[in-house]
Amino acid sequence: MSAILEIDSIRQEFPVTKRMLYLDSAHQTPMATCVRQALSEFLAEGNEMAGPKPVWMRRVERAREDVAALLNALPGEIAFTKNTSEGLNIAANAVPLAEGDTVLMLEGDHPNNAYAWLNLKRKGVQVRFVKVADDEVATAETFEPFIDARTRVISLSHVTFHAGQRHDIASIGRLCAQKGIYLVVDAMQSIGVLPVDVRKLGVSVLAAGCHKGLLVPQGLGILYVKAGLDELQPAYLAMSSLANPPEDYIARPDDLAPRKDAGRFEFGNYNLPDLHALSSSIELIRKTGVERIEAHVLELGDRLIGGLETLGVRLVGPRARAGRAHIYVLDLPVAEWLDYFTQNQVRVSPERGGIRISFGLFNTSEDVDQVVSLIRQRLSRAAQPAAASRVD
């Protein structure tokens, strides 16, 4: 068992670990007890006090501060959205792009990132896809040959969902700064699992949902917009987006100036229950230490890779520590293996390259040994008839 984390106390926060072998945090994390308690408190307040909205709104700002601290950002650089896809679409429509401008992306990256930019083709914006192999990590050198005078944006995932690559965002950020290019990052698979420092990474805009590494239920996302990028303007407008919202709730056609901070991209009501829970989940992450979470999932990955080597099972994604995080795709046919894992109370995901195993802060070395043992058992059973046939 890993000595990096106080694993026993962490596992108490995740009762699902008593019911199944949960290796699917890249799909969604199970609900932590502290998150459930926060949601229950919110519901009780709504039930018993008819919704103390001023209290709830103060908690929204507390959550904004918590997210900013996690990302090494300013609270005014954080907006709340529904999910990653909404954040990426906000970015795509906010960047001032003209006909003939180009966006560079990685071929095979998450489709919802691609569609946010491909939707701009109707305005004459060009999207060019750069190829990288599943075991490769994108760096500045990956993109530099494709940059020309019309390149305005590079958009990619920090950690990929389909092979687990951890791309070198920092080097790409430096390249974008040199070339005057916006860097838009999908941090869905990295936030809460790896240190994500927007200053060090050189990110212009970052989008992420909160139902994976940030441990809250679906329906809440975060958007980071670097301060000073005032040319990034919202496609939608509401009172909450305005610098001077009318106190009498009568629209002022002559005053449509948006806020200067990231709040200009917010509109409508907040997801108050999830925001109430978000501060609780970030507190758990903060107490555990995101650097220690990173070290923990990498250690589990080391153990898994070692076990796969003994079995002759190929890893689809990168093997080097610097190029991976908590996602490991095994070259095992989904049609033959997914039901087997399900029948043995193991939660994994089918992926384009095979079976995806993804670790969370609550997983242990024993979890790794258990799944390796299950793979060994099935491979052994599959080999027995062939051996018997050769004897005959």
UniProtKB/TrEMBL annotation:
GO terms for molecular function: transaminase activity. It comes from the Bacteria. Residues 22-371 form the Aminotransferase class V domain. It holds the Pfam family Aminotran_5. The keyword Transferase applies. SUPFAM superfamilies: PLP-dependent transferases (SSF53383). Keywords: Aminotransferase, Pyridoxal phosphate, Transferase. Gene3D superfamilies: Aspartate Aminotransferase, domain 1, Type I PLP-dependent aspartate aminotransferase-like (Major domain). This is Aminotransferase class V-fold PLP-dependent enzyme. It comes from Variovorax gossypii.
